[in-house]
Every structure is written in structure tokens, then in C-alpha cells.
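Hi, can you check this record?
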Amino acid sequence: MAEVDVDGTEVTVSEHEPSTTTSEKPAPGADVEVRIAASPAHLSVVRAVAADLAMRADFTLDAISDLKMAVDEACSELISRAVPDGDLVCRFGIESDQIHFSAEARTVPRCRRAGRASAGGC
């Protein structure tokens, strides 16, 4: 596990199944998790991780661009709904010819985001 300080925010990148290979290519079956503050300022970190994993897996430039865009859109949507001071957790599952991506963040209920909260809750 590596911890990196990016603009004052701790970013933890961990590989759950250590690779036994010596190549730069990510090992199939390896998972990478990135946990950062749910802030638009940190989207570039997640995009960079996605692009790096895809480059190491020999994806085409178009596929890398598509992955970065999909990751950016998913994370942007979650960030816009995240609770203040919440975390964004992104996971990349690496297979031989594909990368699976998932993201999660604790979110504010829709009625509270729209300012429609009632006395009894949403």
C-alpha cells in the first residue's frame, strides 16, 4: 500500500492481491482502490489512475480516453451528491483485457439536496 499527499489530501492506493510478476503490466485479478476526499479538485487523481492502469494494460488511446471520460462522469455525479467532507472510494478491477470500475460515496438524500426536507424527514 502506498500513501501519497496530493495538495494536502491523503490518497491511498492499495493493491489487494500483490503481483508476483516483474512487468509493468497490472496482474489480472488485481484490484486497485483509491480513497480521496469527495471534491472536484481531486478528479484528476482518479482519472490519472484510470489512465495509468489502462496504459499498462496496453489499451488503445481511444479506449484510455473513453475510460477516463466514464470515470470522470461517474465520479463527478457522486461528488455532486456527496455529504460535506465525505470520501469518494474508487475501485479498479483488472482483468486480462478489461478494467472494471466502481465508485461509491455517502450521499445527501435527494430531497435535502433540493431543499425540500420536511419536518418528518424525506
